[in-house]
Design brief:
Its main location: membrane. GO terms for molecular function: ABC-type oligopeptide transporter activity; ATP binding; ATP hydrolysis activity. One of its GO terms (cellular component) is plasma membrane. With 580 residues, the chain is of the alpha/beta class. The protein folds into three domains: 313 residues, ABC transporter type 1, transmembrane domain (ABC transporter transmembrane region fold), CATH 1.20.1560.10; 141 residues, P-loop containing nucleotide triphosphate hydrolases (Rossmann fold); 79 residues, P-loop containing nucleotide triphosphate hydrolases (Rossmann fold, 3-Layer(aba) Sandwich). The protein contains 20 helices and ten strands. The strands form two sheets. The chain has a six-stranded mixed β-sheet with strand order 6-7-8-3-9-10. A hairpin with a 2-residue loop joins strand 9 and strand 10. The longest helix is centred in the first third of the chain and has 50 residues. The chain is elongated and about 120 Å long.
Length: 580
């Protein structure tokens, strides 16, 4: 119930539409409930006394009530649609904004496919539940209360028959809802799996074709698709049992009322018009119960979606700016004070342990190490993409936790290991680094990152559409565009996470010369090739999450065994390649 109230709070300006919808449904039910009483009078008074004028007058009243009920129903539909689709739009926006505030640690807790499902399918389920269920949700209880009142007013003895049947029907419905509820949660999780398979295949479609794995991917999709079909079948097979239960109860009640009502007519204690009117009210009551049962099923399914959406909205953001946040980074100096880190609080081992490192502002630092040594994790602590589990990370002489997140990240450019370009032109992508950059500034950054070598060959140059994810540029071109984007920020610290691995050595050397010309900028370069960092002011060698050695190229070559092995293996490989 708390989660339902939480979701209802997102109606915002559409709350007035929802209230107007409730009022209109109550008026609609009131007009409809008057009609059986008027019909009973027509039979018992007008027909019995052959009073044509009375029949015509009552008939006119019935027609007016029917028209008023129709009019209020039509007006209600407009308000209900606005409330339902307004709520859906606000929920999607709220989820999207929450995800934008997530840290990397928060994002690690959700699969991308699950977040997509929660913003689309789950919101649609709630939207449809409100749009389709709002009217019966209000109409059912109102008609039930009014119908019972009118029925008891017409004949209390006959009402007892219905009151005996209703609890049996309610128990049957409760049992169905109790068993179906958990299945809806399983159903949405199965939708997550389906979306995950589709997303993975579309993302890696070129690899699928290159390795001729289309049949394998089709088989994977078939399995998860059949799983969704079976889960849906099992869920709705139980859900549809509500209709046999309801109709059995309804026909049983109607038969008993007609039986006892007929006996009462024969004994003279009930008139035909009263029985007709009473049956009309009974049918209204039973229809209201059918509506209520359908609402329960809608609510049962939407509750699973409500819970999943609330998980996104209620996710505690691990990283946030402090109240008295610093808004300016003085320089690019970086200090790691006894820093240890692990991705999960319950993880047994740290990814980084007891890192002690001081990097002066404006220096160039190379970071080497084997796969899994913690190189990427180390640099991600600098712009506070993650928080250190133990110890402190200082940038510009201040703990990164004291900075405003936006200010800190504006001062740090990072070229990620996985290069990401977005739908749009080259110009649009570069301006992620500086939204107001002029064309000349864009071209300067392109020259520094050696984008100018291929920019002229792209149709339209800066206005060339790179497509989603940069699918129509090569890996090396994508890396150089990402480097140019990072340079446009004019940061105090710039991080390259193995970001020249797809370019040739000559181009890499040109890029290194351009970076060397940048003054006052601290450069952290993660690399696999020694020649990428051998000219750095400082080289850090990581080994299994520890700082193994720190020094210049010559110092490490003379005194560090791991660095010497890396260097000699690469030099030996290059020499062999040259001999061939």
């Amino acid at each position: 119930m708390r989660e339902l109230i939480r979701i209802a709070g997102y109606l915002g300006p559409y709350r007035r539409d929802a209230i107007m919808g409730v009022i209109l449904v109550i008026f609609e039910c009131s007009f409809e409930m008057v009609i059986p009483a008027l019909m009973a009078d027509i039979i018992d008074v007008g027909v019995a006394t052959r009073d044509v004028s009375f029949i015509m007058r009552q008939g006119a009243y019935m027609a007016v009530c029917a028209l008023l009920a129709l009019a209020t129903g039509l007006i209600y539909a407009r308000f209900a649609a606005r409330a339902a689709y307004g709520l859906g739009a606000r929920l999607r926006a709220a989820e999207y904004e929450c995800v934008q505030d997530y840290s990397f640690a928060n994002l690690d807790r959700f699969d991308a496919s699950s977040l997509v499902t929660r913003m689309t399918t789950d919101v649609t389920v709630i939207q449809n539940a409100l749009n389709a269920g709002f009217r019966p949700m209000v109409r059912g209880p109102v008609m039930l209360a009014m119908g019972l009142g009118f029925a008891i007013f017409l004949n209390a003895r006959l009402a007892i028959v219905f009151l005996c049947v209703a609890p049996v029907m309610a128990l049957g419905m409760a049992a169905i809802v109790r068993h179906v509820g958990p299945l809806y949660g399983v159903l949405q999780q199965t939708v997550d799996k389906l979306n995950n398979v589709v997303q993975e295949m579309l993302t890696a479609v070129r690899a699928v074709k290159a390795y001729v794995r289309g049949d394998y991917e089709c088989e994977q999709f078939r399995k998860v698709n059949e799983g969704l079909a079976k889960t849906s079948e099992r869920t709705f097979r139980l859900a549809v049992l509500n209709m046999p239960v309801l109709y059995t109860s309804m026909y049983t009640a109607t038969t008993l009322i007609m039986w006892f009502g007929g006996q009462m007519i024969l004994s003279g204690s009930l008139q035909v018009g009263e029985l007709t009117g009473f049956l009309s009210y009974v049918l209204q009551i039973l229809n209201s119960l059918i509506m209520i049962s359908n609402v329960f099923l809608l609510l049962t399914r939407s509750l699973a979606s409500v819970h999943r959406i609330c998980e996104v909205l209620d996710e505690h953001v691990d990283l946030a700016s402090p109240l008295d946040a610093l808004t300016e980074v003085h320089d690019g100096s970086i200090v790691f004070e006894d820093v240890s880190f692990k991705y999960r609080a319950d993880a047994q081992e740290h990814v980084l342990e007891h890192i002690e490192l001081a990097i002066p502002a404006g220096s160039t630092v190379g970071i080497l190490g084997g796969t899994g040594s913690g190189k990427t994790t180390l640099v991600q602590l600098v712009p506070r993409l993650y928080d250190a589990t133990e110890g402190r990370v200082l940038v510009g002489g201040e703990d990164v936790r004291r900075y405003d997140l936006a200010a800190l990240r504006d001062a740090v450019s990072i070229v990620l290991q996985q290069n990401v370009l977005f739908s749009g032109t080259v110009r649009d992508n570069l301006r992620w680094g500086a939204p107001k950059a002029t064309t000349e500034e864009l071209l300067d950054a392109c020259r520094a990152a050696r984008v100018d070598e291929f920019l002229d060959r792209l149709p339209g140059g800066l206005d060339y559409d790179v497509g989603q994810g940069g699918v129509n540029v090569s890996g090396g071109q994508k890396q150089r565009l990402c480097i140019a984007r990072a340079l446009l920020k004019h940061p105090k610290i710039i991080i390259f996470d193995d970001s020249t691995s797809a370019v040739d050595m000559a181009t890499e050397a040109d890029i290194r010369r351009s970076l060397a010309a940048l003054t006052g900028v601290t450069k952290l370069i993660i690399a696999q090739r020694v020649n990428s960092v051998m000219d750095a002011d400082m080289i850090v060698v990581l080994d299994e999450g520890h700082v193994h050695a720190v020094g210049t190229h010559d110092e490490l070559l003379a005194h560090d065994e791991i660095y010497r092995e890396i260097y000699e293996s690469q030099v030996h490989t290059v020499q062999e390649g040259g001999e061939r």
